[in-house]
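Here is one such tokenized protein:
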Amino acid sequence: LEFRRVLFRSPKTKAKHQPVRAGYTQAEEAKLRRIASNQPNAITQRQGCVTVGLACGAGLDASELRHTWVRQVLDHGDDGIEVVVTGVNARRVWVRREYEALVRAGIAGLSADRTIFGHTQASRNVVNSVLSRLQFVEDGLTFDAARMRTTWLAWLVTRPLSLRAILDVSGLQSARTLGEIISHLPPDTTDVRPVLRGED
């Protein structure tokens, strides 16, 4: 009987790996910030600002955005904005300076006991819904939460941080994604000889 159980056990299927798409260029980032900040509808503008601000500016993915409450976004004024990410990849991360204004605009006036989208509980497709409502006229530019996070990760790997620190603040469990992101970056022409010789 045990042999039959083993023989007819359904094989486990491994989830197919989705290749990482390139992030946005610096020029495209500027357009994302400008478009999110200039929406005709006040609610769409606020939600667009906080989505772009935390995805591009702090690397939160769509699921993390959906589960983030206003009380988890800690504004320290001139010392920056800290975000407490909960869940499987719990961590603390800081918003890039260029995106602080967007985040502040996105949560202004909201109760601490609401999600960043202004609800007591955000729906599963809230991020896609917000991005689909943004009105813009930039040729060929689309708002994609996954590419926004990739943009932040691409920026992160160019910072003077150890691999351990990068994994910790990004919530990644391995460096596989980073390797794919690096393949999208332009060649680095920095003279590495002093570093390799221990002269840094």
Summary: The chain has a mean pLDDT of 88. DSSP finds ten helices and three strands in the chain. The longest helix spans residues 42-58. Strands lie at 73-75, 81-85, 91-94.
